[in-house]
Design a protein that fits this description.
Strand content: under 5%
Shape: globular
Helix content: over 70%
Structural class: mainly alpha
Bound molecules: protoporphyrin IX containing FE
Number of helices: 10
Order of helices and strands: HHHHHHHHHH
Length: 311
């Protein structure tokens, strides 16, 4: 059986930055849902300009038409996300909360959101080349995972997690990174399938989902079996396996309801189908976040025991 060694519990950073990081995750989730709905309804070119929409900050069509509403409010959500990330970076910098690495990560996350806006905006100006759209879709999930990692490092649980005494330092870390890489590869292939409508990419995505499931299940089983005593590990592992099963089932529904011609403006007439497809994108993002969080928990629980440094 695994036990935790008695170690002085490190002081958790103040609660404010943690709460802000959680708020960033919530806004990020809605931004991804809005973006996915924009793509699923073929509304990416509702406004041909950027950074303004039809030359205005708040065009009337953004609350009188569905494509205008989805695309414009997606931009507003994206801008809000950027401002919240900037606030977190400034807050951490000013209060010196967290480690220097964490503060660098917060600034880096803010810069990534800026890059994300530029990729989305220049994509609009260039009439949505697949490379822009696929990069934008993938980057969204990486940003989401990065802020989940930042939130974990600001949490009381992170401060309270001691290294597990009878597990070798570093155990399982490589396996977690492989599982995370599998999720990212699956997202890249899904994004290529979505934005190029290539049957080759589509079937590679379907086939690869079974590899992703296998790797995710092995990583979760390992984490539960060897590191299950560490706070949060069991819950994360269970959620990953359950969501993977839901996601694969939903994937077949997506395959059945999607327009074989891909993203087209007329898809907006089928909002229910667009929502089903968008939920698949959102669950993909949640899975990336959960696997990243599991990896972060495993890294935390298998760090070198400070007492050993004196031996
Ligand atoms: C603020 C500037 C932004 C602009 C101008 C913008 C623009 C767009 C456009 C035009 C699309 C549709 C692309 C297509 O159908 O080909 C889109 C989709 C999307 N956007 Fe943004 N976006 C911005 C910010 C963000 C941010 C900050 C995030 C999240 C971190 C994000 C996440 C997404 C996602 C997940 C999709 C759907 C991708 C997919 O389903 O394949 N966007 N965005
Ligand atoms: C491990 C399981 C899976 C994960 C994590 C996953 C994730 C994703 C993500 C993130 C996207 C959108 C990428 C983007 O644009 O940013 C996507 C697209 C897609 N996925 Fe999956 N997927 C999985 C399994 C499946 C399965 C089993 C199927 C079908 C049987 C499927 C069918 C599709 C289709 C058809 C699209 C493109 C939708 C469109 O054209 O609009 N997925 N997937």
């Amino acid at each position: 059986m695994t036990t935790t060694a008695a170690l002085p519990v490190a002081a958790a950073p103040s609660r404010g930055p943690f709460r802000l990081a959680v708020a960033i995750l919530v806004v990020n989730l809605f931004t991804i849902l809005k973006g996915a709905m924009t793509t699923s309804t073929g509304s990416g070119l509702a406004y041909p300009d950027w950074p303004l929409s039809d030359g205005q900050l708040m065009p009337a069509s953004s609350y009188t038409t569905v494509p205008g509403f989805l695309e414009h409010f997606h931009r507003l959500f994206g801008a809000t996300l950027g401002l919240l990330a900037l606030a977190l970076a400034i807050w951490l910098q000013a209060t010196r909360d967290g480690t220097p690495r964490l503060r660098r990560c917060a600034w880096f996350g803010g810069c990534l959101i800026l890059v994300q806006g530029i990729v989305g905006g220049t994509g609009v100006l260039r009439e949505l080349p697949a490379l822009n759209s696929a990069t934008h879709g993938t980057l969204a999930q990486l940003i989401f995972a990065l802020f989940a990692w930042i939130a974990y490092q600001l949490s009381a649980r992170h401060a309270a997690t001691s290294p597990l005494a009878d597990v070798a330092p570093g155990a399982g870390r490589r396996l977690m990174l492989v599982a995370l890489a599998a999720m990212v590869v699956q997202t890249v292939i899904g994004a290529l399938a979505r934005h190029t409508n290539s049957p080759h990419a589509l079937w590679t995505h379907v086939g690869n989902s079974f590899v992703v499931f296998l790797v995710g299940a092995i990583a979760s089983a390992f984490a539960t079996g060897r590191l299950g005593e560490a706070p949060g590990v069991r819950g994360l592992a269970r959620s990953i396996v359950s969501l993977l099963i839901v996601q694969i089932g939903l994937g077949f529904v997506v395959l059945a309801v999607r327009n074989p011609e891909g993203k087209r403006p007329e898809n907006v007439e089928h909002l229910g189908r667009a929502l089903v497809i968008s939920v698949h994108v959102v669950i993909g993002a949640l899975l990336t976040v959960l696997v990243a969080l599991l990896a972060a928990h495993v890294f935390r629980a298998t760090r070198r025991h400070p007492a050993l440094d004196f031996e």
